Amino acid sequence: RKSKITASRKLLLKSLMLAKAKEEWDQEIVDKQAEKERYLAERITPLHTSGLSLSQLQDLCRELHEKVEIVDEERYDIEAKCNHNTREIKDLKIKVLDLRGKFKRPPLRRVRVSADAMLRALLGSKHKVSMDLRANLKSVKKEDTEKERPVEVGDWRKNVEAMSGMEGRKKMFDAAKSPTGQ
User: Fold this and answer.
1) Which of 16, 18, 70, 160 is 20 to 30 Å from 88 at the Cα level?
2) What are phi and psi of 140, to 5 degrees?
3) 144: how many CB neighbours lie within 10 A of its CB?
């Protein structure tokens, strides 16, 4: 499908649109500045302090202080409303994300789960599958050196008396030496 407008015509129209948008933007900036100056001129009256007595200056200061308090209260109220609105906007954004189903996933923690519990979670409670993972493991025989030695079962009190002192230590040393010598 071919475009009906040539590339040069498209470029010309695009540049004209950008130029018009820039003009409107500049005009909007000038209008905002003029509105600001008009508002400030309306709200702020010039202050004439020359030729006033001390009591008149004090009254003027009190009047200005009252106006400052009123403006400060308004500013505080507006700031509170703004904070309330931002909180409400944040809550609404979270609700919208929840409704869409797309939300930021929290970092996952490691949890020890048995194989049966994992299968139950994946397949649901309908399927009762039990899997013994240990049954599939190879069995390995350990070489137990203690089985090769004969274990003497007897009265432990005699053994303690026989092993006491230096003679007992010599017997233990000889006993430990003899199996390795064979």
Assistant:
1) 70
2) -120, 130
3) 8
Distance CA 155, CA 161 (A): 10
What are 135's two structure tokens? 């049954």
Return contacts of 144-151, CB within 8 angstroms, 24+ apart.
148/179, 149/179
- As a whole number of angstroms, the distance between CA 22 and CA 29 comes to 11
Q: How confident is the model at residue 182 (pLDDT cuts 50, 70, 90)?
A: very low
Q: Which two tokens stand for residue 166?
A: 């230096």
- Tokens 């695009």 identify what position? 14
Helix segments in 101-164, DSSP class H: 115-123, 145-148, 156-163
Query: Taking Cα atoms as reference points, which of 134, 116, 133 lies closest to residue 125?
Result: 116
Q: How many residues does the chain have?
A: 182
Using CA atoms, how far apart are residues 68 and 74, in angstroms rounded to an integer?
Answer: 10
Backbone angles phi, psi at 162, to 5 degrees: -70, -30
